[in-house]
Amino acid sequence: MRVLIVEDEKPLRDSIVEQLQQAGFTVDAAADGEEGLYCGREYALDLAIVDLGLPKLNGMELIKKLRAEGKSYPVLILTARDKWQDKVEGLQAGADDYLAKPFHFEELLARMQALLRRSGGWAQPVLRCGAVALDPRTQEVTVNGRRVDLTSFEYRILEYLIHRAGEVISKGELTERLYAQDFDRDSNTIEVFIGRLRRKLDPDDSIKPIETLRGRGYRFALQRESAA
Amino acid sequence: MGPRSLSTRLLASVSILLILFFGITIAALDFAFQRVTEQAMHDRLEAQMLALISASEEDSSGGLQPAPEKTEERLKNPGSGLYGEILRSDGYPSWRSNSLTGTGLDFAVQLPSGQRQYRQLHRGDGSPVRALSRSIAWEFDNGVTRTFVYSVAEDLEPYYAQLNRFRGQLFGWFGLLMLLLLGSLQFLLRRLLTPLRRIEREIEAIEAGRMTELGGGYPRELLGVTTNLNALLRGERERLARYRNTLGNLAHSFKTPLAVMRNLLSGAQGRDLAVARQLDEQVGRMDDIVKYQLKRAAASGGTGLGTAPVDVRTVLESLRAALLKVYADRRIDCELVVAPGCLFAGDREDLTEVAGNLLDNAFKWSRGKVLLTAERITDPTARRDGLRLVVEDDGPGIPVDERTRVLDRGARLDERVSGQGIGLSVVRELAQLNGGTIRIDDSPLGGACIEIRFPAT
Question: Cα(A110)–Cα(A112) distance, rounded to whole angstroms?
Fold first, then answer.
């Protein structure tokens, strides 16, 4: 998952970036509204975190511009002013949730995961597809209730695929979402990791969770469960 | 009794003064006229008396009577209104005028010689006459001197009729004059008070939010009031805006370091600190104090003068939409019932803050249903309607013995545990600053019911 954080306060930005990376996100950071607008336009994002009080272009305007350009990824507002008027205006401008400073990082993470889940069309916190269940809160993956150990990168690929279960995801898109900078898109790293994932999730080749569509990309093939 | 307007007061006082003034004038004129006409009548009687005496001739019986050719015509015609009599000293009339016939008028007078007397007498039918009697000694040709009493009288009816006519005219003209005076006074007053009425109208417009300040072109005497009022209104608005901006900056500059601290504490190096949890708790406490005090300070609590009354429906609908978005996962059914014409006579931000905190609480605790009701509080004596806001949910509710404490939390921040939430105490503060009250109750939905009342003012 690739997220953008637009926050002018460097220590806070650095700290959030560090913790988000540890939590398995690919993170882009911007220090002001204009930089934020550039990143928000150019990068393939899954979510943006926007501080309202930004230099050059304030957060509200930034969100409006991104929405006006058809960017539909979830946006979470950070605000120090904590006024309902601001929250309402922010949400009306196109944000999806808000968080007042100072916040606990866990709270931020939980809100982000909820937004990501919602944008992927998931209603429950644990994402279940057939025998496979993924809990973004604990980053735990199980197959038929059996825990599967994944490396951080494997987890990130799987999380993205499951989030968008049923959709075809190109290799390029996967690369973009998982690496902050564009590098070597032709490498077969993704293929290698997909192969490892298949072996770990489906050692006896019985459930076939990840489909390869030649020339188009991958698809998480197991049926989503709208578990009650 | 309501306050009376300036013009009513002035008109009432001037009317009383005019009535007094004209009353005295009329009384004086009436008195003077009576005196004059009475005097004129006496002069006439005196002249008749002299004419009668000078016309008198001795008759064969030793009495006196006027020579017919010298006698005034009116004395000869019965009921003419002028009467005469010559009385002998033995009490028998020597002569009675023909006009006395059938009148029942009796002079019946005894006067010492040389005396005269005015009297008011009555005819047989009761109508008044004015009479003059005079006793004279008459020396006959034979040298004998006898005393006679001459009397003349005139009907008072014509005199009264004249007096009444005069009075009628007097009242008529003075009445007309008074009406004219009052009319022109009212006209003058209206002209004079036009600028005051304009101020009144413009202040109403300002209260209703249609205008932000008084217009120009007022007379010199009022310029001081209007310009100062405008300055006050402008100052109030600007002060609030500046104040809020400063508070916002303060919040920003205060909370950003707190946010950094909190994030550092949950970061790689912070997590391992032994006191990380305690430090984090202190950050929370500082945050609450700042939040509570700043929200309190940022409240307008003012009259909202010079700003349009807030349309409650718009505010509540945008809050509802915002919260439904934030709590989308919970699939909460939030019903909004706003009575038509609900207005908040105050500051939009205050109302948004109160309703936002209440709704957020309700969403937080609700199991799936939130009901938000807004009604007008009307009072015929008030200039602006009040507002009643009720937020209900189907959550666990607030136990009776907790209610006071929940509302007091903000005020006793030192005693509380971080994380308990200060929403309701902020709401209480804001409601009170706007002259409102808060009440916690049980909702028929099963959870808490919070009622805020802003009375009509």
Answer: 5
Q: To which residue do tokens 């009604």 refer?
A: B375
Q: In chain A, which residues have their Cβ closer than 8 Å to the Cβ of B283?
A: 102
- Give CA separation, A23 vs A18, A122, B285, B404, in Å: 9, 20, 27, 42
B321 and chain A in contact, CB less than 8 A = yes
CA distances, B371 to each of B362, B394, B440, B441 (Å): 9, 9, 15, 14
A91 touches B at CB < 8 Å = yes
Which three-class secondary structure state does DSSP give residue A139? coil
Decide if A170 contacts A216 (C-beta within 8 A).
yes
Place A169 in a pLDDT band, splitting at 50, 70 and 90.
Answer: confident
Instruction: State both tokens at B118.
Output: 């005015």
Whether residues A84 and B319 touch (CB distance < 8 A) is answered with: yes
Q: Where is B153: in which H helix or E strand?
A: strand B145-155
* Three-class SS state of A81: coil
Is the pTM of the predicted complex or chain greater than 0.80?
no
* Identity of the residue numbered B307: T
Contact A102 B252 (CB under 8 A): no
Q: Is the peptide bond before B399 cis (omega within 30 degrees of 0)?
A: no
Burial class (CB in 10 A: 0-12, 13-18, 19+), A52: buried
Q: Strands, E, within chain A: which ranges? A: 2-6, 26-30, 47-51, 75-79, 97-100, 127-129, 132-135, 140-143, 146-148, 168-169, 210-213, 217-220
- Asked if B325 is an interface residue toward chain A (Cβ–Cβ < 8 A), one would say yes
| B273 φ, ψ (degrees, to nearest 5) | -65, 140
Tens digit of pLDDT for each residue in B179-237?
898 889 889 888 888 888 888 888 888 777 777 788 888 888 888 888 888 888 888 77
Q: Which one of A15, A82, A85 has the shortest CB-CB distance to B263?
A: A15
In three-state form (DSSP H/G/I as H, E/B as E, the rest C), the secondary structure along B364-383 is: HHCCCEEEEEEEEECCCCCC
Question: B237-261: b or e for each residue (b if 16 or more CB lie within 10 Å)?
Answer: beebeeebeebbebbbebbbbbbbb
Show the tokens assigned to B158.
Answer: 């014509």
The secondary structure of B395-422 as a DSSP string is S----GGGHHHHHHGGGGGGGSPTTS--
Give tens-digit pLDDT for A104-138: 888 899 899 889 888 887 877 788 888 888 888 88
Q: Which of A22, A78, A118 is facing B328, going by the closest CB pair? A: A118
For chain B, give the number of residues. 457
Distance CA B152, CA B161 (A): 21
